[in-house]
């Protein structure tokens, strides 16, 4: 059942070369093979975790490339009883398909890839759509169908304003001409041709009837169709997509001609969090919630094999088993630690690179170890690869390095810098400049390489690009295409921390480039790398603009880039968290919104511990507390809401003690008092409510004395007077209520005299006037 049972030599170190150099991990090769060959299928998720640079990605690529095979029963039984892991692993790697095994379709999904257009691997919509496309492309012979998921995606895109042609580009080309096109054309009401291909009666005029007929012809429940169409696409349907994809995969893997296994590889799981990996609370769990939803719905018992790689232990650090929503129970996790290489395995690796001098090999192994003073060396794969790069680059120049060249071993924390610096000293200056430029890219291809060469003034040639691709710290980015690459995060981080001038120039070029091509989130990322404050300011401004116009897809793109952001001030962190809280509130993600507001308040408190008299921080803290109070009121957490409003008012008072004429703070204080009065009215705390309304109106009056034509404050005062009048009427204080309503109408009239086209205020004024006539 599914978990959710509820409802560098002459060849260089290109990726193929890296796979050929792959060493050790024999027991993991055997373990993976058991998932593909044991019957019945194992019902657990294979999760590899370990430090950065330990070879998790390479292991997954190796398993996908060489080990996604299912053997005939006789061969597998012989392998199972063989106790030599290395022999078994070598046999699995070298076994020829069609001789005694068949190829198993294997799908790759890398969460670490930077978002690019609709390719956004961490996004709850586009990430799933990428996965769905990749499944179809990995197993075309099985013709997987995704009717529920596809219809929901098309409906989602249509409701978000995408045209039929834009939608078609998001699905596999071979399917657009067949199964997908009728769905798209039905939903978007495209021309006759595809209706006819779908076998529909075009003379049925009503679109609802057309869709129902299409659904009926495919023997699918009309109730499910209506359920999908009835959901709000941004606050409900998007969170149902993992479930729908899981249901479609369950149906597909139940067919007679289904593959015996289907492998889903998920790499770089930690990229959901980036520098926020150590935060806690619901916001932490929200980051990969859609992924956990999907995992819970996958039919493991039908032969789907899930392999995940990440830096953190899924139970102890990621706390998957403890998540309040959509946890992954312990019994469904097969957790494997990917540790460093042994000295013997490291020697095997160096031998494959044709580094065989015994004393040099011993020196390199000790240099690349995390414990060079101990007897049982633990060799860091990333450091070992860099050591090999250094030797091979020098060998190409006709220089043979000796063991003495690696006799001085730097501290562990300095090894990355030392090895990178040493390697780049030995390469051509143009290559060295290119490496520092490309470390600014979250991913690059030859087009970006040549563009950076032109703009950053290094000689970009095809030959140098081939050299770059051979380094051990350069990886192919297959999700984006055969000619896309990325540089290891450790090197990128090193160049950023050292403020490398070449890297900074590249960020300038890339910021301009991404603005020109219309990828604003990516441009803002590079702006942040150049000037973290400018990037944060623009992120907040553009995120809030997208939020105001309900462009939630763009909001999610900004959120994915925010994971890579550098934020060096608690004040700015509070601003970002506050915006995220507003976003999650709008999408009814209440637990996540609450967590963001709490993080914003905590950030402002840290800032105030250093600058207690900062009025802007006090004001922002008050706004965050007020927003939290609004959310708590909505969730009927009345005691907590009253406390939040009271704390917000206290923050505003502290700011006003320092700056009595701070108009924005006076307005905000009035708003918090008004909200508190509304809550107290609901709770029948009438005396307290009357006092809150009186204080709110007094705060607005103080602000209006300073700025008589401030439209927003006039409107807020009018609303407070109206609500105060309603309370007085409930208390049978009719004369007082009438006076309050008249004062409210006066405030609205003053506002409309300045902005006569404010229809919402006009309607509020007119309704109140009509009501007042009836009372008099």
Explain the overall architecture.
The protein is mostly helical and 776 residues long. The strands form three sheets. The protein has a five-stranded parallel β-sheet, with helices on both faces. A three-stranded antiparallel β-sheet has the order 8-10-9. The protein has a two-stranded antiparallel ribbon with strand order 2-3. Strand 9 and strand 10 form a beta hairpin.
Distance between the termini: 69 Å
Query: From the 3D coordinates, which CATH architecture of the domain at 25-112 and 260-337 would you assign?
Result: 3-Layer(aba) Sandwich
The secondary structure category is mainly alpha
Biggest pleated-sheet summary:
5 strands, parallel
Strand order of the largest sheet: 4-5-6-1-7
**Percentage of residues in helical conformation:** 55-70%
CATH fold call of the domain at 25-112 and 260-337: Rossmann fold
Report mean pLDDT, rounded to a whole number. 86
The total beta strand count reads 10
Q: Which helices and strands, and how do they pair?
A:
Layout: H1 15-21, H2 26-37, E1 45-49, H3 56-66, E2 69-71, H4 73-80, H5 85-94, E3 101-103, E4 106-110, H6 126-138, H7 147-159, H8 164-168, H9 173-188, H10 192-197, H11 207-217, H12 222-230, H13 233-252, E5 262-267, H14 282-286, H15 289-297, E6 304-310, E7 333-337, H16 343-352, H17 358-367, H18 381-396, H19 415-426, H20 429-438, E8 444-445, H21 446-456, H22 462-470, E9 474-476, E10 484-487, H23 489-497, H24 501-516, H25 520-530, H26 532-548, H27 552-562, H28 570-586, H29 590-610, H30 615-634, H31 638-658, H32 663-682, H33 686-706, H34 711-730, H35 734-754, H36 759-775
Helix pairs in contact: 2-5, 7-9, 7-12, 7-13, 13-15, 16-17, 18-19, 20-22, 20-24, 24-25, 25-26, 25-27, 26-27, 26-28, 28-29, 28-30, 29-30, 30-31, 30-32, 31-32, 32-33, 32-34, 33-34, 34-35, 35-36
């Amino acid at each position: 059942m599914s978990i959710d049972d509820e409802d560098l030599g002459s060849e260089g170190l290109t990726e193929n070369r890296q796979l050929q150099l792959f060493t050790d991990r024999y027991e993991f090769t055997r373990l993976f093979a058991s998932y593909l060959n044991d019957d019945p299928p194992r019902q657990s998720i294979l999760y590899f975790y370990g430090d950065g640079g330990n070879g998790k990605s390479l292991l997954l690529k190796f398993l996908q490339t060489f080990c996604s095979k299912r053997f005939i029963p006789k061969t597998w039984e012989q392998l199972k009883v063989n106790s030599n892991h290395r022999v078994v692993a070598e046999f699995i790697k070298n076994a020829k398909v069609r001789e005694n095994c068949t190829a198993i379709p294997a799908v790759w999904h890398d969460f670490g890839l930077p978002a690019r257009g609709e390719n956004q691997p961490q996004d709850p919509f586009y990430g799933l759509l990428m996965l769905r496309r990749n499944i179809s492309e990995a197993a075309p012979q099985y013709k997987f169908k995704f009717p529920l998921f596809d219809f929901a995606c098309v409906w989602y895109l249509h409701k978000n304003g995408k045209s039929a042609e834009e939608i078609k580009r998001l699905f596999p080309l071979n399917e657009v001409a067949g199964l997908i096109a009728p769905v798209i054309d039905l939903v978007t009401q495209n021309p006759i041709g595809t209706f006819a291909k779908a076998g529909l009666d075009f003379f049925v005029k009503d679109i609802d009837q057309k869709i129902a007929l299409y659904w009926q012809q495919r023997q699918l429940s009309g109730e499910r169709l209506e359920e999908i169409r009835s959901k709000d696409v941004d606050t409900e349907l998007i969170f149902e997509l993992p479930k729908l994809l899981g249901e479609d995969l369950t149906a597909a893997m139940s067919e007679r001609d289904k593959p015996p296994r289907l492998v889903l590889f998920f790499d770089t799981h930690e990229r959901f969090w980036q520098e926020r990996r150590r935060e806690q609370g619901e916001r932490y769990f929200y980051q990969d919630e859609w992924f956990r939803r999907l995992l819970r719905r996958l039919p493991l018992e039908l032969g789907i094999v899930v392999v995940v790689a990440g830096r953190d232990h899924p139970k102890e650090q990621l706390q998957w088993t403890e998540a309040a929503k959509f946890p992954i129970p312990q019994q469904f996790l097969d957790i494997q630690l990917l540790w460093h290489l042994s000295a013997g395995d490291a020697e095997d690796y160096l031998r494959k690179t044709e580094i065989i001098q015994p004393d040099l090999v011993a020196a390199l192994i000790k240099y690349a170890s995390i414990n060079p003073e101990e007897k049982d060396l633990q060799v860091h794969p990333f450091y070992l690869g860099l050591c090999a790069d250094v030797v091979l680059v020098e060998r190409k120049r006709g220089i043979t390095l000796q063991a003495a060249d690696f006799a001085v071993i730097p501290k562990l924390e300095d090894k990355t810098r030392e090895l990178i610096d040493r390697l780049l000293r030995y390469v051509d200056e143009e290559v060295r400049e290119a490496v520092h430029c490309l470390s600014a890219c979250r991913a690059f291809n030859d087009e970006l390489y040549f563009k950076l060469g032109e703009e950053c003034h290094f000689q970009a040639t095809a030959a140098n690009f081939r050299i770059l691709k051979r380094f051990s710290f350069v990886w192919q980015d297959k999700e984006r295409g055969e000619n896309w690459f990325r540089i290891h995060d450790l090197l990128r981080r090193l160049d950023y921390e050292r403020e490398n001038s070449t890297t900074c120039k590249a960020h300038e070029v890339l910021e301009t480039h991404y603005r020109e091509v219309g990828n604003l989130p990516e441009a803002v990322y590079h702006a942040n790398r150049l000037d973290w404050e400018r990037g944060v300011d623009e992120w907040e401004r553009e995120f809030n603009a997208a939020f105001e116009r309900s462009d939630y897809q763009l909001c999610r793109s900004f959120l994915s880039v925010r994971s890579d952001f550098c934020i060096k001030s608690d004040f700015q962190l509070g601003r970002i968290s506050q915006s995220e809280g507003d976003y999650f509130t709008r999408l009814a993600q209440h637990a996540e919104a609450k967590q963001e507001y709490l993080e914003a308040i905590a950030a402002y408190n840290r800032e105030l511990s250093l600058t207690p008299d900062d009025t802007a921080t006090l004001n922002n803290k008050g706004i965050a507390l007020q927003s939290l109070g609004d959310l708590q009121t909505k969730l009927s957490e009345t005691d907590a809401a009253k406390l939040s409003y009271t704390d917000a008012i206290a923050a505003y008072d502290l700011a006003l003690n320092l700056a009595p004429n701070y108009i924005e703070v006076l307005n905000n204080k009035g708003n918090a008092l008004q909200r508190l009065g509304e809550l107290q009215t609901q709770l029948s705390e009438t005396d307290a409510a009357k006092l809150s309304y009186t204080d709110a109106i007094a705060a607005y009056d103080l602000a209006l004395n300073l700025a008589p034509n401030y439209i927003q404050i006039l409107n807020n005062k009018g609303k407070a007077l109206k609500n105060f009048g309603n309370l007085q009427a409930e208390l049978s204080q009719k004369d007082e209520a009438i006076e309050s309503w008249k004062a409210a109408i006066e405030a609205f009239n003053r506002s409309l005299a300045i902005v006569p086209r404010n229809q919402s205020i006009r309607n509020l004024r007119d309704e109140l006037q009509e009501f007042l006539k009836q009372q008099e």
